[in-house]
Amino acid sequence: MGEQTEFEPGDKAPNPGVYVEVSEARSFHTQIQNPKRVTLERGETFPETSNKDRKWKKAEKARVH
């Protein structure tokens, strides 16, 4: 089983780092403009996203189009 890469609001950060909002739909047309960015330490709770269809992902693992 692999490491979890996407997180929901309320989940705990597995590692320290910068996390960004990503869309659940991986389409080019649904690319997020100005996504929220948060810096978390291990064990801190992810905040709410801008809408219910988004998740958090570590910045260096987020896809860039």
From TrEMBL:
Basic and acidic residues bias locations: 38-65
Superkingdom: Bacteria
InterPro entries, per database record: YjzC (IPR025549)
Stretches for region Disordered: 36-65
Protein name in the entry: YjzC family protein
Naturally occurring in which organism (per UniProt): Paenibacillus apis
